[in-house]
């Protein structure tokens, strides 16, 4: 699918609590170009997942607006455009359906949308799986697979829907370092093949730089854009660049921005603990 | 119950033709079978020892295993009931039929109600308090009302059996719906599934493990209530046989009826387990199960 230009304009989200309303996100502006892999990093609780939920259609926002290809997705007091299938989320924990085979999982959206029969959808799914070297697990159940393979299947399941935007919410969190780096390359392989807009949320700075076209660092709550850094590394990328001086420079730049905020988040946490 | 194949998931999608799963064969007999037989032998041995050999005072009125087994397989039973008498099967059939009707009714009312309670929070707010207030009432307390409602003994016994199974099935289905990871539902919606599709393809298959737990429990309490109902208001059936044999001092027949209840109850549970394992074949093939 062409398109996938995602614009967040002065987005804010306040949660009502017993006392004063708490601002999770404030005045967040971001323009993600079509086909860009945009990474958002920030300390815990900075509202990254709130933003992603707003784009996905799970939560509303209290100010600003979000547009996808010049179509309003959501604004304050206005109904959201709903959930999917032009924006598909891949969550932190596997959401593959354990009772469906891998092929049926990958074809799920095509059947749910009544675009295809189950048999045709599974056929397309098997083709997609073959393209990324997962053809021989088409008949397995998710429970039979390692978490890394489950992740790849899940990303593929999202991409089969040809979404305008793929939303990844810390998808590799909790994986060991070796599977993680394998996953990075698998994601880049899929990304290069499908040329889809990706919004990727993570804690991991090296991951952000290795994957991203641009990296946005968020401030501590309320979450704002602290800075956006262009990652001017050529694609396709491979693990070799990790030791390159320019890669280290970019990592350092992102780290510096994150460190300030992490410290501030820690101090805020301390103060809340004392109180 | 050997070929556990993925073709048995009818609740999720109509047909898996074209996707032939790797055949997997599992052993029916578990290696624990010899141990189970040993335990059974020990149990009967204790019974034999306490009643027939030692004749302990407490067990003086109890029929021993030799007497029971001899009576059970006798072509000409002294107390009128053995595997060669037609009335034995008439009693079994009466009980099985009642449980089958009551259980089927519980299945077809309990599962939809449980799904509705779990799915719609509005409906739950109306209905669940009533449900929770009625549920603690012991089944036996329903006997008089059951008699008033159904007039026939048959109807009231089936009603009591149904009530017991219905609660177990409904409640476990509700728990099953609540056990589903919210992100699974979100993922389905992201992929373009509407509410009814989510219900059909995520909520029902996702609740299935709990639903089958509910069916297991429901089958157990169904037999329990059936026997209680038959003892009070029966005309046939194994519970009636136990009670009638007691009043007419045909003690070996009591034990025959008890053992038969155990066997039939075990068979009905095994049937549910079998259907469940066929429907949820994926669980047998998942890592760590």
List keywords for this structure.
heterodimer; A: 275 residues; alpha/beta; Rossmann fold; four-stranded antiparallel β-sheet; 8 helices; B: mainly alpha; MetI-like fold; 2 domains; disordered N terminus
Q: In a few lines, what is going on in this structure?
A:
The complex is a heterodimer of chains A (about 280) and B (about 290). With about 280 residues, chain A is an alpha/beta fold.
Explain the overall architecture:
The complex is a heterodimer of chains A (275) and B (289). By secondary structure, chain A is of the alpha/beta class. Chain A has a single domain, classed as Rossmann fold (3-Layer(aba) Sandwich), CATH 3.40.50.300. Chain A has eight helices and ten strands. Chain A has helices spanning 48-56, 102-106, 108-112, 118-131, 147-160, 177-194, 205-211, 245-274; strands at 6-15, 22-32, 37-41, 63-68, 71-74, 87-90, 165-169, 197-202, 214-218, 225-230. In chain A, strand 7, helix 6 and strand 8 (197-202) form a beta-alpha-beta unit. Chain A is globular. The mean pLDDT of chain A is 88. Chain B has 289 residues and is an all-alpha fold. Chain B has two domains: 32-62; 63-285, MetI-like fold (Orthogonal Bundle). Chain B is globular. Chain A binds chain B through residues 56, 58, 83-85, 87-89, 91, 93, 95, 97-101, 103-104, 108-109, 111-113, 118-119, 122-123, 138-145, 157-158, 161, and chain B through 6, 9, 12-22, 181, 183-184, 186-194, 197, 201-202, 205-206, 208, 280, 282-283, 285-289.
Compute the separation of the termini of chain A in Å. 51 Å
Strand-residue proportion of chain A: 15-25%
The gyration radius over C-alpha positions of chain A equals: 19 Å
Question: Approximately how much beta-strand content do the residues of chain B carry?
Answer: under 5%
Radius of gyration of chain B: 23 Å
Please tell me what the overall shape of chain A is: globular
The secondary-structure element order of chain B is HHHHHHHHHHH
Under CATH, the homologous superfamily of the largest domain in chain B reads MetI-like
Q: What structural category do the secondary elements of chain A indicate?
A: alpha/beta
